[in-house]
Amino acid sequence: MFVAIEGIDGVGKSTVISMLRRKLEESGYRVYTTAEPSQSPIGRLIRDWLLKPGSNVAHPSIFALLFTADRVQHYYGEVKPMLDSGYLVITERYMESTLAYQGAMGLQQEWLMELHRFVPKPDLTIILDAPVDIVISRLRSRRELEVFEVNREFLIKVREILLRRALMNNYPVVNANRDLGAVVDDVYGLIINALRRVV
Hints:
Blueprint: E1 2-6, H1 13-26, E2 31-35, H2 41-50, H3 60-84, E3 88-92, H4 95-104, H5 109-115, E4 124-129, H6 132-142, H7 152-169, E5 173-175, H8 180-198
Parallel strand pairs: 1-3, 1-4, 2-3, 4-5
Helix pairs in contact: 1-8, 2-3, 4-7
C-alpha cells in the first residue's frame, strides 16, 4: 500500500513517520519511508534552490513544474519498485503538497491536477494539522526558514487548501497539536484499518 502523509511545514511529518515506521515494523510489516523533494537530481536542485535568497520571486509555475517532475521520477524510480517488492511505502509529501502550496501561490487547481496525470494517487492520504502560529514557532526554533515557511498569511492559505481538499476527498485529518505518541497512534490506526480493507 502507498501512503502519503501531508501537512504544512513544521506540523511534525518527519517525526511522526519515523516513529510510525518503527511501530509498523514491530507489528510485522515491511516498511519503506521516503520524502519529497526526493533524492533525485531534480529533488536536490529543488532543495538547494529553496534555501537561496530570492527564490520566491520565481513564477509559481516553475515551482509546480519542478515539484511535479521530481514526483514522477520519485514514483517510478523509487516508490513503485518498493511497492512491487511488497513494501508498505510511506512518503512525506506527495501531490497534495503541490496542489496546496502552488495553489496558494495562485495557480489553478485544474492545471495542477493535469500535471499529475502521469502519477497515481496514493492508496491513503493523511493530513496532519496544527495551527499556523504553532508550526511557525517550531520552525523558527530549529533552523533557517525556507521560502514557503516565512509568510504567515501564505501558510494560512496552504492550510485552508489542504483542509478543503481533505473534506472534498474524504482524507482523514489528524490533530498534530497533541502528544506525539497520540498522533502516531492515530495515524497507525488509520493505516492498519486501510490495510485490512485492502486484504
